[in-house]
């Protein structure tokens, strides 16, 4: 068990630490408002969340930053209590765009530094301000680059004090090894943010990461919002699972609380998204019960090895991460 009982944080390999639960802030702009996002960040901080997962590409960094600063101004929290994770989008992976992109995020958030900055995906796209670059025939415009060069530019951002810790997201083992074995590596990735929940347990990647002191941050820990525009809905809804429901009943907990508890109990950070005040609170009530070893094993056995987030539209990208076993 990696969890510190005092403040629900787990140590990172660079000496910093990360709160084991954070609020996810990605929401489909067609079905949720930016104000809803700001209100949710404030409810989350009032509830006790100290970790907020954001990204430039979510289009709501401004509101997230305002909400965090409002809570700091109120005296509810200090800046150093908050752990903000930002993400470097795929059109900004060329080294010369890395620092300006992070500086733009800091300006939008109106913060001096982010706690964690991660490469959102290992697949580089045509550099520029077009978030989803395609040619006139609708074909994706990919870009060839050495991810180690991106990493060196990130290391310089950490040395300049713009970010406390560096990580990656959606990296497979080979891509992690590429960074870990980089000649002259100055700062190791402290975390890898990937899909992770009882239907996609990431057992092998988790073991590899634990061996290398890399914390897994579980995205879509509740099984996503099941928007068929980007979610593989051929896998059944996680929160309807009969076994998980029965465990919830035993502890007088909801299924959402059980699946979050499963991950934190094995040292995996969770970042459930909710913009509903009751569910934001519900998702945080996971520290007052624990699953037995047998229940942990039974839940691990629910693994179907099918992703909700497959990113199949980019499967012909040379760095598409999900062709490899893990
Ligand atoms: N790095 C990446 O590539 C990547 C990819 C995907 C996601 N992420 C990050 O991970 C975060 C979480 O992932 P996600 O948004 O895909 O999915 P998720 O957190 O697994 O699920 C979110 C969905 O579950 C609902 N929900 C929340 N709490 C609930 C509860 N207690 N009971 C029932 N339903 C509940 C939410 O609706 P309400 O809002 O109405 O409660 C929303 O529809 C994102 O917001 C984002 O920050 C990162």
TrEMBL record:
InterPro entries, per database record: AKR, AKR1D1, Aldo/ket_reductase_CS, NAD(P)_OxRdtase_dom_sf, NADP_OxRdtase_dom
* Gene3D superfamilies given in the database record: NADP-dependent oxidoreductase domain
What are the NADP-dependent oxidoreductase domain coordinates in residue numbering?
A: 21-303
Q: Which residues cross the membrane?
A: none
Keyword Oxidoreductase set for record: yes
* PROSITE patterns recorded: ALDOKETO_REDUCTASE_1, ALDOKETO_REDUCTASE_2, ALDOKETO_REDUCTASE_3
What keywords does the record list, in alphabetical order? NADP, Oxidoreductase
A Pfam match is Aldo_ket_red
SUPFAM superfamilies in the record, alphabetically? NAD(P)-linked oxidoreductase
Q: Does the keyword NADP apply?
A: yes
Instruction: Please give the superkingdom of this protein's source.
Output: Eukaryota
Please state which protein family the record places this protein in. Answer: Belongs to the aldo/keto reductase family.
Q: This chain belongs to which protein, by name?
A: 3-oxo-5-beta-steroid 4-dehydrogenase
